[in-house]
């Protein structure tokens, strides 16, 4: 394969993940749109909410690894070469970042972890 064709990648991911691919794509697009709309509405990022979302992101990376093991034919014991371990790390990282963005957006739209304004003297 000399060229990188997005349709080939889509077909490979469809074969690997099955119908869950479309659910994950919908979840990612919804999370990104919710995050972008929230940041545009609030015009800043609240640090307390971000730290809490990052803690959930650590769990989200683990969930991504479990999903990878469930959906694919091979398991973690089949990882032999460096590219296999790199892919496992990428799956964890993408799951962590995606779940952090999603949790931050959900918490923001629910009004959680907003730092109150400091009174001016």
Structural commentary:
This protein has helices at 6-17, 20-42, 47-71, 82-110. It is mainly alpha-helical. The chain has one domain (6-110). The model has no long low-confidence stretch (mean pLDDT 83).
Topology (SSEs and partners):
Blueprint: H1 6-17, H2 20-42, H3 47-71, H4 82-110
User: How many domains in all?
Assistant: 1
What's the total helix number? 4
Q: Beta fraction of the residues?
A: under 5%
- Rounded Rg: 18 Å
Q: How helix-rich are the residues, as a percent range?
A: over 70%
Structure in a nutshell:
The protein is mainly alpha-helical and 121 residues long. Helices cover 74% and strands 0% of the residues.
List keywords for this structure.
mainly alpha, globular, 4 helices, single chain, 121 residues
């Amino acid at each position: 394969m000399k060229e990188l064709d997005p349709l080939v990648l889509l077909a490979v991911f469809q074969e690997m993940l099955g119908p869950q691919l479309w659910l994950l794509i919908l979840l990612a697009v919804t999370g990104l749109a919710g995050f972008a709309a929230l940041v545009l509405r609030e015009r800043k990022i609240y640090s307390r909410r971000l730290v809490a979302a990052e803690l959930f992101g650590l769990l989200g990376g683990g969930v991504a690894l479990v999903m990878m093991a469930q959906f694919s034919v091979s398991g973690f014991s089949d990882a032999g070469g460096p590219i296999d371990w790199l892919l496992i790390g990428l799956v964890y990282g993408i799951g962590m970042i995606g779940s952090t963005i999603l949790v931050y957006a959900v918490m923001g739209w629910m009004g959680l972890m907003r730092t109150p304004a400091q009174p001016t003297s």
